[in-house]
Automatic annotation (TrEMBL):
Belongs to the LysR transcriptional regulatory family. Residues 1-58 form the HTH lysR-type domain. Gene3D superfamilies: Periplasmic binding protein-like II, Winged helix-like DNA-binding domain superfamily/Winged helix DNA-binding domain. This is LysR family transcriptional regulator. Keywords: DNA-binding, Transcription, Transcription regulation. It comes from the Bacteria. It comes from Paracoccus broussonetiae. InterPro entries: LysR_HTH_N (IPR000847), LysR_subst-bd (IPR005119), WH-like_DNA-bd_sf (IPR036388), WH_DNA-bd_sf (IPR036390). It holds the Pfam family HTH_1. The keyword Transcription regulation applies. PROSITE patterns: HTH_LYSR.
């Protein structure tokens, strides 16, 4: 048994789907099924019941799920503590990055500065959904993450880099059709579905917080350039980062729907027990210089 099998079990249990778990874990569906089978065979316990359309926990699976989550967190704490004892800026640092434009994240500046100041430190950058980034932080598969979030995830410290504004947009071709119409009328057309447990989901909820509408959600998109392309093609309503929305509007691809906006935070997040880790401190210092930060961590 290894930590990957436990994490696969927990992810499938949360999402009730092998397909969605494979996407979240960045592995194939056969790999997910294989890990689950190996885990069940080793434990000699059936954890999940599978049908052609869904996956549900067995009674044994329900009893063991919280234990699996605790084991993942304990493994992450063990890895973090071992790295903290190392006491020098070398080895490998794995950073997760949310699916936004790398230039907006100033990722090139960050990596250039770290490489120049800490040549012995090997950096591994992994791009993924917010849900995957948060789970990977818990299980120590990554050491820190640059993501979009209005709140600090439990068990983490957060260095806020900047505020980001997102705007509700519609396809440019819909402009006259929806001129002067209300948000409730807009709910009658398709919307781009945002990924669960993501910064975009928080933003959409904030934009719609004073309304009772339930949008008709269609295609799911978790990458901002994909969201822009889908809205521009007329697939549905979406939310775009302000700078990207202005660019798309100037290109004649989208229109703003009223003044529906939401503000969130771009931040670097890492586990609380990594605060004294030399590699994390190196990244925090570089980020503070790049973004001109004077204060520190939440």
């Amino acid at each position: 048994m290894d930590i990957r099998q436990l994490r696969t079990f927990v992810t499938v249990a949360r999402l009730s789907s092998v397909t969605k778990a494979a996407e979240a874990l960045h592995i194939t569906q056969p790999a997910v099924s294989g890990q689950l089978k190996s885990l069940e065979e080793e434990l000699q316990v059936k954890l999940l019941s599978r049908t052609t359309s869904s996956v549900t926990l067995t009674q044994s699976g329900e009893a063991l799920l919280s234990r699996a989550e605790q084991a993942i967190e304990a493994f992450g704490a063990f890895v973090h503590q071992a790295r903290a004892l190392r006491g020098q800026v070398d080895g490998q640092l794995r950073i997760g990055v949310v699916m936004l434009d790398p230039a907006a994240l100033r990722l090139g500046e960050l990596l250039h500065g770290v490489v120049q100041r800490h040549p012995a430190l090997r950096i591994d950058v992994q791009v993924g959904r917010t849900s995957w980034l948060l789970d990977a932080l818990r299980s120590a598969e990554i050491d820190g993450a640059i993501l979009v979030s209005q709140t600090r995830p439990p068990g983490t410290k957060m260095l806020v880099l900047d505020e980001m504004v997102f705007r509700l947009v519609i396809p440019a071709r819909w402009d006259q059709e929806f001129d002067g119409r209300s948000l409730s009328q807009l709910a009658e057309v398709p919307w781009i579905r945002v990924a669960p447990r993501s910064g975009h989901q928080e933003i959409m909820q904030d934009i719609l917080k004073d309304s009772t509408i339930r949008p008709i959600e269609t295609v799911e998109a978790d990458h901002e350039q994909l969201m822009r392309a889908l809205v521009a093609a007329g697939v549905g309503v979406g939310v775009l980062r302000e700078e990207l929305a202005l660019e798309a509007r100037a290109a004649g691809e989208v229109k703003f729907f009223g003044d529906r906006v939401a503000t969130t935070r771009l931040a670097f997040v890492y586990a609380e027990d990594r605060a004294d880790d030399q590699a994390i401190r190196a990244i925090l210092g570089e980020l503070s210089d790049i973004w001109g930060l004077k204060s520190a961590v939440d």
